[in-house]
Amino acid sequence: MSEENEVITGIDAPVALKYNFTAGAAAARFLTQVKKGVLTGQRCPKCSQVYVPPRGSCAACGVPTEEEVELSDKATVQSFTIVSIPIPNNPIQPPYVIANLVADGANISFIHLMSECVNEEVHIGQRVQAQWKPQEEWDYAMDNIRYFTPIDEPDVPVEKIGHVPVSGWEG
Amino acid sequence: MKDIAIVGYQQSDLVSDAGACNEVEMIIPVLGKLYEQVGITNAQDVDFVCSGSCDYLQGAAFAFVMGVDALGAVPPIKESHVEMDAAWALYESILKIRMGQAESALIYGFGKSSPGELPIVLSQQLDPYYLAPLWVDTVSLAAMQARMMLDQGLITEQDMAEVVARSRQNARRNPHAQLAGDVSADDVLAQETFVSPLRKADMCPVSDGASAVVIATVEKAREWGIPYAVISGIDHCIETHNLGMRDLTDSSSTRTAAKNAGMHNGAVDVAELYAPFSHQEIILTRALGLDSNTSINPSGGVLAGNPMMAAGLSRIGEVFNRIVSGEASRGIAHATSGPCLQHNLVTVLEKA
Question: Residue B90: CB partners within 8 Å, gap ≥ 6?
Fold first, then answer.
């Protein structure tokens, strides 16, 4: 093919935009507490559901959430997956467990890692607790918690996950 | 075909930096006031919701989805979004009602431009092969447009300064305005040029803010028993991406849209024009054939505050406010998108 008829299939046009992004008022309060080693949720004034991490609104009711609720660092497994393939740029070596966890005192799950467990024995309803980094490493970040590990407490029945206060669920 | 009316409008204060406030936190107070105005509880009480926003502004992927957290979407609602000014979300909502799929709709727009460098961010809406890689910013393009007009003798710097002065003066009666004051054309002309021939005052400020509107069929509006203004026409037209092919001293797409929307079927008492730069208000006024019988930008327009993706919807809301207050019986609202007034929408509102 002659040069003047060359088919152009792509050009390099790199885009780099700079932002000074803010997390939002609710997320900022949450991160401030996480830096102190505390998980904080927000309760909906209408349906009473507790969200963690909070976004400043109840997505179900569409109303602002202001009441802050301090949560335990114990949680219940609502769902999980075992990752067996390496994810590009992820420093964690597979196989590892990603879980949807409902913190005691909250109704809506958040996602974190599970470790120091037998992957094949992880199950829905299982009780877990946060393993925090050493306090001097705490920052405004969810990875102040390295991961969650199983604890010796009775499972929460599936239909009750997110519907009971749990801390010491007696089932 | 059922007539459609605007039944409520609210906007946030326009600020240069909303600080630690996410999209939901920006939208919720506006929606709360709007629900109260219209007498509804939340988005469950309308048949359709449509929003306008652009994730490039705050640099957060899928921020428009986060915005839905403000609505109360349980049980699920019918919801849509345009990556455009929410004036186009209103256009989509009108189509939805005209198709018979809804009797009412909530429309909201929000923009948090402060986290980024807005003129640079907007350069990425240009043609991706020739212009975007050059990072030509919106202020520079508008400055070239103003230069053309000055050199052709179509306007003077005095004309531009008078637009700014009138905006600042009018904005003193707008409690949400970001820039307002007792400013004269001489004060403006005393400023040094910023991007020649533009002075900073010739440019709209960078603003954070949100606005929202509820529309409904006239039947529904009567059932709700609240004041309303009828949308008698709406149309939008776009010009080519290639700036070199356009006559930048005119806005032919605005003229066509206004004609199609039926603007000329009656007197125009008030016009809210989305002119981010002073000379563009003159282009629009001339393209629309407006004269001294029309009050232009009584809110101060976007020179008084320009919340991207909400400001076009706000123009419609400002005309609505003046019609329901009895200040005007017929008016037009204009919204724009793209560089140098590329894409334009005209809405005609009338007293019920």
Answer: B50, B107, B213, B215, B234, B313, B316, B347
Distances (CA, A) of A1 to A8, A9, A10, A11, B103: 12, 14, 17, 19, 59
Is the CB of residue A17 less than 8 Å away from at least one CB of chain B?
yes
pLDDT bracket for residue A2 (50, 70, 90): low
Tokens of A102: 């409902």
Given a contact cutoff of 8 angstroms between Cβ atoms, the answer to whether A41 and A51 are in contact is yes
Where would I find the beta strands (DSSP E) of chain B? 4-11, 48-52, 79-82, 104-112, 193-195, 198-199, 208-217, 229-238, 270-272, 295-296, 330-337, 343-351
Q: How confident is the model at residue A171 (pLDDT cuts 50, 70, 90)?
A: very low
Residue A149 lies in a domain: yes
pLDDT value, residue A1: 53
Mutation target to probe the A interface, by most A beta carbons within 10 A, among B15, B16, B21 is B21
CA A86, A91, A96, A97 dihedral sign is negative
User: Is any Cβ of chain B less than 8 angstroms from the Cβ of A32?
Assistant: no
Number of domains composing chain A: 1
Instruction: Look at residue A20 and tell me if it is in a domain.
Output: no
Coil, strand or helix: which one is B149?
A: helix
- Output the pTM of the full model: 0.93
Contacts of B86 (CB under 8 A, 6+ apart): B50, B51, B52, B53, B107, B108, B109, B211, B213, B309, B310, B312, B313
Domain assignment of residue A112, yes or no: yes
Note the pLDDT of residue B9: 98
φ, ψ (nearest 5 deg) of residue B228: -145, 160
Residue of A nearest to B75 (CA): A60
**Three-class DSSP category at B31:** helix
**CA distances to A81, A115, A127, A165, A169 from A124, in Å:** 11, 15, 9, 17, 15
DSSP letter at A6?
Answer: P
Q: Is the peptide bond before B75 cis (omega within 30 degrees of 0)?
A: yes
ipTM given for this complex: 0.85
DSSP, residue by residue, B223-254: HHT---EEEEEEEEEE--S-GGGS-TTS-HHH
Across the strands, what pairs with A62? Answer: none
Residue numbers of the domain that contains A150: 25-160
pLDDT < 70 positions in chain B: none
Q: Do A61 and B129 touch (CB under 8 A)?
A: no
Residue A11 domain flag: no
Between chains, do B73 and A62 touch, taking CB under 8 Å as contact? yes
Element (H, E) at B29: helix B23-38
Average pLDDT for A120-127: 96
Q: What is the pLDDT of residue A20?
A: 92
Answer yes or no: do A25 and B20 touch at CB < 8 A: yes
Q: Which domains does chain B have, with CATH numbers?
A: 4-117+206-229 (3.40.47.10)
Which is it for the CA torsion B302, B304, B309, B313, positive or negative?
negative
